[in-house]
Amino acid sequence: MEKFHSESIGATNVENLQFNVPIRRMRRTLLGTVPVESPLYSFHPVTRFFSLILLGVAPLFIDTPELNVLWIMLILLLMIYGRVDMSRLKIYVPLIFTVALFMFSIAILLPGEDPTYIPFKFMGITIYYQRIFWALVSYVRVMALLFGSIQYFLTNRETDMLVSLQTLKVPFPVTYFVGLSIRGADMFMQDMKTIREAERARGLDEGSLAFKDRAKLYAMYMIPLFTLAIRRADEIGNALFVRGYTFAGEVLGGGKRTSTVMNLYQFKVRDTFLCALQVGLFVTMAILQLKFSQFRIDHSPLNAYFLSILT
Amino acid sequence: MAPIIVLNNLFWQYEGQEDFALREICLKIEESSFTSIIGPNEAGKTTLVSCIRGLIPRSYHGILRGSIEVLGKNIADKTELELAKEIGFVFADPEAQFTAMTVLEELAFGMENIGFSLNEIKERLEWVTEMTNIQDLLDKSPFEISGGQKQRITIASMLALKPKIFILDEPTSMLDPLGKDQIINILTTLKEQEAMTLIVVEHNIEQIAPLSDQIVLMADGKVLKSDSPQDFFCDIEPLERLGIAVPHITSFASNLLDLGLYEPPLPLTIEQAIGPCRLILEQRGRE
User: Fold this and answer.
1) One-letter-per-residue 3-state SS of chain B
2) Given CB 3.0 to 4.6 Å as the disulfide criterion, which of A65, A75, B85, B286 pairs with A147?
3) For residue B134, what pLDDT is reported?
4) Is A2 domain-assigned?
């Protein structure tokens, strides 16, 4: 029997536990699959969790769109480093376009009123520069937040998230609730898929339905979905009961609860360094923007260029 | 052997239901025995094992009368953790019982709740994964594997706790023939190697009867019959009236018995029937 390669789970002491697990090529993550030999897995889940905080939240401090574009490029490079199948990002293209359409439409159609706005004509429509540029700033920021989250959820599993939260001393019932919620969302989607497939098997052609009828159809899904969700909650409750789970997470004899999966991972020196670096960078960015406004729009060369043309 | 489970005049009515789901249940189950509970649908089999496990009345509302004693103590006096350690329970639908996103976590979850040390968890994991042949699945999601594998994982997650009493509620009902055989093999191994008290609710009598020390027949919330397999099948007509599928070889021998060609006890397996059948053929040859 082959032993699980320690790198494949990012834990050097797996072999000490001597679980006879074979090598697997791909690992299913929350949003896809990633090769088990991805270099990202050599880092502790906490290190990866801090990357979510940094990459997924720090763009909120940045108004300068150029910096957020660089931020997105950094995230994409990290995905390539993590051996993510970049073709999977195609599924997010409709989302990227929808968000753009929504944000720019609002900026064009509902600009509001301000005497300082600089108007210009584009295809016969009056557009106000400040509104459209702010829409661009917000859009790029949202994209940075989106890609930061995709990067994390595409390369991590629910287990990684729970291990990181438990390492950060979040109480077990809380981490377990998070895990069950993620699982619940996944099951909800699976149930919906099953119901839709059953409808198609009975000859329903969604494509032929008018928008109103399609909306009605989706509303009708809610009844079986919620019924199933309630039944599943009952079943999981029973399953937890027979496994001796108590809400407070107490154990027989009042001792400390062991976490088997936490012992599969080792927090190495480089993890300490990277965590400190990421937290430091996050705090620095927050201070630079909140106290010194270093990432405001005025610092954008693109903004300066457009203003020079329009004024 | 001393009874490990004693049900005394047990009645149970689910809240909102007009009739009692269980009525006048008096049953003793001996330690380290293999008890099969059979009966038509809606007979009260699942309700009965839920009472033994303590799911009733803890997780369901209703009226309970009578007493349930497990390991010499009323079940109402036991804590949830004590119950989890002493009584394992496997539900019919394996997917409905998963509480974690990897098989390893699923197996370890119960042991962590009970408070086992890491070394103990490690030892038990090795034992249980070998016993149920799921060594290759530890890193997988329990939702990604076949039905038979899923049920083996739920069995393993309970077995890892090494409960004194292990209840399986229709463990093969949602499985294909291969999956059913694998579960029966695990039950056979458990009966042969472990001193557990096994209680199995099952429709697959053909495979389960030969393993049983006691078979309990239920219908309409009552225990109609409780006997050793040989005595249980001595009269198969009432069973067939209830729609209970008697093992084919038992049915065949029963027909021979009616013709005066077979001597009791009735066989439960082909192996048990070979000797008597050979004798009949030899006698007929001489005649």
Assistant:
1) CCEEEEEEEEEEEECCCCCCCEEEEEEEEECCCEEEEECCCCCCHHHHHHHHHCHHHHCCCEEEEEEEEECCEEHHHCCHHHHHHHEEEECCCHHHHCCCCCHHHHHHHHHHHHCCCHHHHHHHHHHHHHHHCCHHHCCCCCCCCCHHHHHHHHHHHHHCCCCCEEEEECCCCCCCHHHHHHHHHHHHHHHHHCCCEEEEECCCHHHHHHHCCEEEEEECCEEEEEECHHHHCCCCHHHHHCCCCCCHHHHHHHHHHHCCCCCCCCCCCHHHHHHHHHHHHHHHHHC
2) A75
3) 92
4) no
Q: Which residues of B touch A241 (CB under 8 A)?
A: 55, 58-59, 80, 84
**Residues whose CB falls within 8 Å of the CB of residue A150, separated by 6 or more in sequence, listed in order:** A31, A89, A92
Q: What is the pLDDT of residue A8?
A: 40
How many folded domains does chain B comprise?
Answer: 2
Q: B139 and B87 in one domain?
A: yes
If one compares A4 and B267, the residue with the highest pLDDT of the two is B267
Q: Given CB atoms, is A1 within the 8 Å cutoff of chain B?
A: yes
Q: Residue ranges of chain B with pLDDT lower than 70?
A: 1
Beta partners for B74? B69
| Residue B136 in contact with partner chain A when CB distance is under 8 A | yes
Which chain B residues are within 8 Å of A11, Cβ to Cβ?
none
Distance CA A96, CA B58 (A): 49
C-beta atoms of B102 and A260 within 8 A = no
Q: How many domains does chain A have?
A: 2
Of A183, A186, A255, which has the smallest distance from its Cβ to B115's Cβ? A255
Q: How far apart are CA B233 and CA B216, in angstroms?
A: 11
Q: Give the number of A-B residue pairs with CB atoms closer than 8 Å.
A: 131
Q: Looking at the domain assignment, is residue A246 inside a domain?
A: yes
Question: Does residue A7 lie in a domain region?
Answer: no
Q: What are the tens digits of pLDDT across the range A122-147? A: 888 888 889 999 999 999 999 999 99
Whether B141 and A246 lie within 8 Å, measured CB to CB? no
pLDDT at A254 over 80: no
User: Hey, is the C-beta of A193 within 8 angstroms of any chain B C-beta?
Assistant: no
Q: What residue has token string 């149970």?
A: B12
Does B60 lie at the interface with A, CB-CB under 8 angstroms? no
Q: How confident is the model at residue A295 (pLDDT cuts 50, 70, 90)?
A: very high
Q: What is the pLDDT of residue A178?
A: 87
Q: What is the pLDDT of residue A7?
A: 39
Q: Contact B96/A255, CB-based, under 8 Å?
A: no
Is the ipTM above a cut-off of 0.85?
Answer: no
The pLDDT mean for chain A works out to 86
Whether A251 sits inside 8 A of B114 (CB atoms) is yes
pLDDT for A246 equals: 81
Q: Kindly tell me if the per-residue pLDDT of A4 is higher than 70.
A: no
Domain range for B64 is 3-236
Model's pTM, two decimal places? Answer: 0.80
Contact with chain A for residue B76, Cβ under 8 A: no
The chain B residue lying nearest A249, using CA atoms, is: B113
Does residue A23 fall inside a structural domain? no
- Read off the CATH number of the domain in which B150 is found: 3.40.50.300
Q: Domain range spanning residue A225?
A: 171-265
Residue A249 or A209, more confident: A209
